[in-house]
């Protein structure tokens, strides 16, 4: 397995290098994440298929959340890479419908959906620990001695089940839901941490609500994590297992094909060239590296396979043009909405009414079990009841881009 993981990481770093992208400001770090498919029982190099990769470490403050779905709320690498994987699955379904034979997905024998081909597993790579509950003790260990000593003396009372903690505060609250960003001096957001989102994917899959009507739940089989010193790996493994398994409990009430699937945890010693540690090692006399404001998004087998984002929109696009389909990010809600409808059309499936909003279409998925599975984790009285939801106010746009103010307090100004 170690050699397989090393092969995967080398392949991801090679694909990143081929994009020729680097943060535009010197001495700025970023995080790299990717999703890849592996075909078991194969020693060939082609057994790995990287389907998406992304960089990023920023998210928008709540006051800048777009109401038309034309920008990304959360541009952390893990989130963008997951959205890129969803886009790839849509396009692979379209290719299958056009007669292409896929190695990676197949039609389900008993349902009108696709699924991973037996023997295929989904891997996730991230160049450093995901923010949130999976990295709390790691961050505490890597603080300067004065900060670490002061933090070790502080304890906090348990959060009520309907609450989430903020960023890096309250390290002693292990298992707590947390919001981004981690820095206390940054504007607040409603974006949950990557560790929390990955815990959700352990229950509902990575495919999301819309794609769940076409694709069986796709679960992460293993997560490969970089930038963790060998002497801290046992502690980090314990935190990851708590974040993605132990704090979820049994998640009662899940209906087939949904279940709790905890990913394996693997580590890689190979550094990412634009990680914080790599940059600071290269330039030890510089001030500490700062996080890049940009993100790279790359999707396999796609025309115009990569693009660069800044502030949740495509770099260089004017405010006047940002909502035009040709200028929107490939991975924003409006673009994935359009890709979903295009896939339905390719399959000759019924299309929703033109005035149905993105929010309402997502929640129709309740009938196929996705929203029921999400509710089993985030509903009232459930372990993630404190999950902060943006929801309808930022998802009340339809396929034409028309906003529905009566359903959208953010549009109404209320």
From TrEMBL:
Coiled-coil regions, chain positions: none
Organism, scientific name: Rickenella mellea
Pfam families with a match to the protein in the record: A_deamin (PF02137)
Residue ranges annotated for the A to I editase domain, each copy included: 52-397
Name of protein: Adenosine deaminase/editase
GO cellular component: cytoplasm; nucleolus
PANTHER family associated with the record: AT07585P-RELATED, EUKARYOTE SPECIFIC DSRNA BINDING PROTEIN
Domain of life: Eukaryota
One of the GO biological process terms: adenosine to inosine editing
GO molecular function: double-stranded RNA adenosine deaminase activity; double-stranded RNA binding; tRNA-specific adenosine deaminase activity
């Amino acid at each position: 397995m170690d050699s397989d993981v090393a092969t995967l990481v080398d392949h991801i770093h090679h694909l990143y290098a081929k994009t020729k992208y680097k943060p535009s400001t010197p001495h700025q770090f970023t995080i790299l994440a990717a999703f890849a498919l592996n075909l078991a029982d194969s020693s060939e190099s082609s057994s790995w298929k990287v389907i998406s990769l992304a960089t990023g470490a920023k998210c928008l403050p709540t006051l800048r959340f777009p109401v038309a779905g034309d920008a990304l709320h959360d541009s952390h690498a893990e989130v963008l890479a997951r959205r890129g994987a969803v886009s790839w699955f849509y396009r692979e379904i379209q290719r299958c419908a056009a007669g292409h034979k896929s190695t990676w997905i197949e039609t389900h024998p008993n349902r009108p959906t696709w699924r991973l081909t037996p023997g295929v597993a989904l891997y996730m790579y991230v160049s450093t620990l995901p923010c949130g509950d999976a990295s709390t003790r790691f961050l505490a260990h890597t603080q300067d001695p004065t900060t670490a000593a002061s933090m070790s003396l502080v304890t906090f009372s348990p959060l009520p089940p309907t609450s989430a903690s903020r960023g890096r505060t309250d390290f002693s609250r292990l298992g707590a839901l947390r919001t981004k960003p981690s820095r206390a001096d940054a504007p607040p957001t409603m974006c949950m941490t990557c560790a929390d989102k990955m815990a959700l994917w352990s229950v509902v899959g990575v495919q999301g609500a819309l794609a769940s009507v076409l694709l069986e739940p796709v679960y992460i089989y293993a997560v490969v994590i970089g930038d963790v010193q060998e002497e801290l790996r046992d502690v980090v493994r314990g935190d990851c297992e708590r974040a993605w398994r132990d704090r979820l409990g049994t998640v009662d009430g899940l209906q087939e094909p949904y279940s709790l699937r905890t990913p394996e945890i693997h580590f890689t010693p190979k550094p990412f060239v634009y990680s914080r540690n790599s940059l600071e090692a290269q330039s030890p006399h510089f001030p500490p590296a700062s996080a890049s404001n940009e993100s790279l998004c790359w999707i396999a087998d796609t025309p115009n396979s990569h693009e660069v984002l800044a502030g949740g929109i495509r770099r260089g696009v004017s405010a006047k043009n940002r909502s035009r389909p040709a200028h929107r990010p490939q991975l924003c809600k409006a673009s994935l909405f359009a890709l979903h409808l295009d896939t339905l059309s390719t399959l000759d499936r019924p299309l929703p009414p033109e005035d149905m909003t993105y929010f309402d279409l997502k929640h129709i998925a309740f009938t196929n079990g996705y929203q029921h599975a999400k509710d089993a984790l985030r509903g009232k009285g459930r372990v993630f009841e404190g999950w902060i939801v943006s929801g309808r106010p930022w998802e009340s746009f339809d396929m034409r881009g028309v906003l529905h103010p009566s359903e959208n307090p953010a549009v109404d100004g209320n």
